């Protein structure tokens, strides 16, 4: 699996597949290099998108891996890649969230994320906020 920044060529793919981002924001996220595309050979198999909580803490908004490619470590690899990139940019903490009825909470806890709070919306299950200190992440070239 390869990981690249999304480019203009990925715009239609992202808009079609990622139903959790307003289509007008995709171009900006691509320009800001806040979307990664996951590749298997020449085919896109998923993406990871992030932003910044309170405009100062990297916050992973979405990971998606197509069903046939799940369970092969791709999710863990893209999270590690992102953590390394955030470490290179000088950050020591990253965040993410997941709904309490989703199994992703176990994935995140398994790779070192800890519960940091929750958000309760009237129409959705509890949203669990998770964070991780990344001081120990090994950055390539160090």
From TrEMBL:
Taxonomic superkingdom: Bacteria
N-acetyltransferase domain: residues covered: 1-135
Coiled-coil annotated spans: none
Gene3D superfamilies: 3.40.630.30
Name of the protein in question: GNAT family N-acetyltransferase
Source organism: Paenibacillus cucumis (ex Kampfer et al. 2016)
Source species taxonomy: Bacteria, Bacillati, Bacillota, Bacilli, Bacillales
């Amino acid at each position: 699996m390869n990981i690249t920044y999304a480019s203009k060529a990925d715009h239609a793919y992202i808009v079609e597949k990622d139903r959790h981002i307003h289509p007008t924001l995709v171009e900006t996220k691509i320009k800001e290099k806040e979307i990664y595309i996951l590749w298997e050979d020449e085919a896109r198999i998923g993406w990871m998108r992030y932003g910044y909580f309170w405009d100062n803490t990297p916050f992973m908004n979405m990971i998606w891996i197509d069903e046939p490619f799940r369970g092969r470590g791709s999710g863990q690899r893209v999270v590690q890649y992102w953590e390394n990139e955030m470490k290179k940019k000088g950050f020591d903490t990253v965040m993410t969230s997941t709904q309490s009825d989703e199994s992703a909470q176990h994935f995140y806890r398994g790779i070192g994320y800890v519960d940091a709070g929750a958000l309760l919306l009237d129409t959705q299950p509890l949203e669990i906020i998770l964070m991780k200190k990344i001081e120990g992440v090994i950055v390539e070239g160090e």
